[in-house]
Automatic annotation (TrEMBL):
Organism, as annotated: bacterium (Candidatus Ratteibacteria) CG01_land_8_20_14_3_00_40_19
EC nos: 4.2.1.136
Residues given in the record as AMP binding sites: 193-197, 222
Family that this chain belongs to: Belongs to the NnrD/CARKD family.
Cofactor: Mg(2+)
Keyword flag Flavoprotein: no
Gene3D superfamilies: 3.40.1190.20
A Pfam family reported for this protein in Swiss-Prot or TrEMBL: Carb_kinase
Protein residues bound to (6S)-NADPHX: 34, 105, 156, 223
Lineage: Bacteria, Candidatus Ratteibacteria
Annotated protein name in UniProt: ADP-dependent (S)-NAD(P)H-hydrate dehydratase
The YjeF C-terminal domain, residue ranges: 1-282
Quaternary structure (record): Homotetramer.
């Protein structure tokens, strides 16, 4: 299957509002890079607007890191992570946006976890949850049953093991079945990252990705995937399609970067730099995307 032309063509009379507004929620001391990478990759993936919701004391740092991305400083804890007091502001701001990407650099601080677990049942926009967002959810996974909006989880094997409270070795030996069973049970799309990333939906459909390389096993790579998928959600894509195409393009950009930099020297920003090339790839290369 080829990537659809909607990914590559825009109307001549377009404006930024036509391509969605993504709200990326995360960030904590020492982990500002995660939310920055997700936000930048979302813009590179065609989102018309991206806002980073971060602890207020980190706002200056993010404004220096990010030029095209907007920031929204939110109430924080004494540890400078997001506070439960941010909940009403997030709920209010959600009326202005089209999708959420939650978790990059979020931390698992107790009050921040309380914020997330209280907010998830209130979500009314398509959402991708990653990183510390998943680690927090693992503490109270029943919350997933309360979420009514389209929802994507993108765990690596370690995070998946925490969700299921089982060993990583068990996950790795049964990747397809575990991904499928989880997605069906909780009514979500699951992106189980790793070699040949698996995407499963709530109907039991499975997609196995064939792009990507070992050089992408580097800090920040997963944050970029979160931003790509989040951008597609903001642009109005159905969640299974957004996850499949996001995983494919993420891997393709990584492959293009590895050809230039080599796998050993690959870093996350190299992947972002090649997203433009991934979007421009010819029809023959697009056929690497298979169901």
């Amino acid at each position: 299957m080829k990537l659809p032309s909607i990914l590559f063509k825009r109307k001549l009379d377009s404006h930024k509002g036509d391509y969605g507004h993504l709200f990326v929620i995360g960030g904590s001391p020492g982990l500002t890079g995660a939310v920055a990478l997700s936000s930048l990759s979302a813009l590179r993936s065609g989102a018309g607007l991206v806002t980073s919701g971060i602890p207020e004391s980190l706002n200056t740092i993010l404004e220096i890191k990010l030029t095209e991305v907007m920031t929204k400083p939110l109430p924080e804890t004494k540890e400078r992570t997001l506070s439960i007091k941010a909940l009403p502001e997030i709920v209010k701001f959600s009326k202005k946006i089209d999708a959420f990407a939650i978790g990059p650099g979020l931390s698992t601080q107790k009050e921040t976890a309380n914020l997330l677990l209280n907010f998830l049942p209130k979500i009314d926009k398509p959402t991708i949850l990653d990183a510390d967002g998943i680690n927090i959810l693992a503490r109270k996974i029943a919350v997933l049953k309360k979420i009514e909006s389209p929802f994507i989880l993108s765990p690596h094997p370690g995070e998946m093991s925490r969700l299921l409270k089982t060993d990583i070795s068990v996950i790795q030996k049964n990747r397809r079945k575990i991904a499928k069973d989880f997605a069906v049970k909780y009514g979500v799309v699951l992106v189980l990252k790793g070699h040949q990333t698996i995407v499963a939906d709530e109907k039991g459909n499975i997609y196995i990705n064939h792009t990507g390389n070992a050089g992408m096993a580097t800090a920040g790579s997963g944050d970029i995937l979160t931003g790509i998928i989040g951008a597609f959600l903001a642009r109005g894509w159905e969640n299974f399609a957004a996850a499949k195409f996001g995983v494919y393009l993420h891997g393709l950009a990584g492959d293009l970067a590895a050809k230039e930099k080599g796998e050993n020297s690959l870093i996350a920003t190299d992947i972002i730099e090649k997203l433009s090339s991934a979007f421009l790839v010819d029809n023959k290369r697009r056929k690497a995307y298979t169901d």
